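Morning F.,

Quick status update on the modeling queue. The single chain you submitted on Monday has been processed. Sequence for confirmation:
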Amino acid sequence: MPSTDLIETDICVIGAGSGGLSVAAAAAAFGVPTVLIERDKMGGDCLNVGCVPSKALIAAARTAHEMRHGASRFGIANVEPDIDFAAVMAHVKGVIASIAPHDGIPRYTAMGVNVIEGAGRFVDNETVEAAGKRIRARRFVIATGSRPAVPPIPGLDGVPYLTNETLFDLTERPDHLLVLGGGPIGIEMAQAFHRLGAKVTVFEAQKAMGRSDSEMRELALASLRAEGIDIREGAMVSFVSGEAGAITVTTGEGDEAQSVTGTHLLVATGRKLNTDSLDLEAGNVAFDRRTGIDVDGGLRSKTNKRVYAVGDVSGGPAFTHTAGYQAGLIMRPLLFRLPARMNADIQPAVTYCDPPLAQIGMTEEDARQKHGKIDIRRFPLAENDRARAERKTEGHVKLVIAGGKIVGVHIFGDAADEMIGFWCLAIQKGMKPSDVTGYVPPYPTRGEIGKRAATDYYSAMARDPRIRKLIAFLRRFG
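Structure tokens below.
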């Protein structure tokens, strides 16, 4: 075995995605010796092949859609956009490049972080090896994220297919994009490519956008289908065949089998955790290949107390903002020896279709199952002055209230992804509708919509005969 250099440090972070970078930056800011190991690109999946490029593509697609359909609402002629697909994808790459220095090695090296480029693996319960070096640390933070999961569909391995890791390398627009998976990635990319001029067919074995509140999910899917996107639910793919430029997806079997042929195939059927190369067994880190590293409520390994996990590998919600939240959480024990506990109930989720679908807290279905008696309050965008002024009135805000507290908020409509931010705080602080009715949003903004929904919670008081009699009585006294 070749000789290796030994590095002794306080904290060793494996994975330079959102969670890992946040831990490394915070530790270095407090002067704590920190090693950061990354085998691929700094910034991880989100910057390079996930959140950032997808939102850049969605922005371009939204512009094309507004040119076709949105201008006439304001007395301006609609036009068919002249789409240079290669230029659109260059825009996507440009956005990534503009952000990359913020996550780059020079910046972290300047902070004092020892960045090692290579794959990390455990040698024992206190040592990791990477790029010919051995790192012995007081604490390890595993933040290696996940990658696309490719299902074992017969024939799939014999045809060219795309995942989110290769989709943004396209320079020619697909004529007909077939999408396997109706989750957030599949839905977002289906709409974006459709708006950029491709025909799109989505195949979802169960329910598309299945983790969303059922009422709001149906609103979003109806909007997407109205645009012309073919979304097939309950469509179990039985076989894939063909070659580049002519790929056929077959659903069902026998007399019920149906086939659709397209030019490109995107596999967006879920994620697989990046734990394979870590040799976690050598580090005495218990894990499950499907659910992640076995951690306690403070994200600490149950079997190796030197190890913490953040992001996808922790087994919690697989969101970039969750990884960032977890990174901040574990700094309490890492730096200050204070207790910390993960709260999965305060993690928002957004599907960035247009209009977007955003949620925080419990769905109506979950709330009924847990609390029994609940109250649902809605307020439509169509009755909001700002939405009317901008002619974007589709959708509504939905509050789920149990025991006098707001336990869930769901928004489908323009700017839902921005509006949900206020409600994240409301859920985290256990606010009541009365707390929301007391705040003053600027006029005219969409922020008023949620307040109107909360105010509606008390509208029953105006119809209560006892309250009416009390008011009538008080009127006698001037």
